[in-house]
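Review form for a predicted model. The reviewer records the input and the model, then writes brief findings.
Reviewer: anonymous (R2)
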Amino acid sequence: MKTIEQNITPGYQNPLDKSFIEFKNVYKAYGDNKVLNGISFTIKKGENLVILGRSGSGKSVAVKCLVGLTKVDQGEIIISGEDITKLNEEGLNRIRMKIGFLFQNGALYDSMTVRQNLAFTLQHNNKSLNENEVEAAIKEALQNVGLEEAIDKMPAELSGGMRKRIGLARALIIKPQIIIYDEPTGGLDTITAREIIELIRSIKLKYNATSIIITHDLTCAKYTGDRIIILKDGVIKAEGSYKDIENSEDDWVKSFFEQ
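Model under review:
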């Protein structure tokens, strides 16, 4: 069996320099708990950005702010030239329609088959599709994650890795401009985690979506991220390629890689 280093080549660097997502001096606190303390970073179109950080560092709150589920206290979040912090709920919903989510546990509807799970998401985003168009989109999404045969299965019949794949198919079926991966390899064995990493990389090449990958898994970070930021206490402690960060002289950053 090939090692992950042999099986996955390093990610390509997108030649586009224009920022697609930008956080500008973003603050967020819950009472006295200051979760984000003026973070600023950009993501280029087609880039995979990995956000690393221990529990409570602000990773999940940053993503909630990005999709408008949490309002920032101060700062701007720009998506494709539009400051989403100024949008009303209708405007936010328009932005959310462009975002695909892979949740940590797959978050499938247990009472629906795989086909029904995917159809529900697609029809929620695009009510104008006819039955044949929906079926074709479902089969394409399942083909992209290698699970065409699971179309009529119930979530309870799927392994953890299969649930992640179906969750990813559901994210892809809307042809998103942005994909958010929440702990994509969390709770998986080494071989299944490697398969998910390979899927993330192949999806980057096929869809050229702009992706944010929240993870604790350094292997996932290394092989899926074009760039990595590490959050500590709501601020960016390190930013750069995996190699840049791994070779940091900062004691705290070095300790992160010695877990």
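Findings: The mean pLDDT is 88.
Further findings: DSSP finds ten helices and ten strands in the chain.
Recommendation: see findings above.
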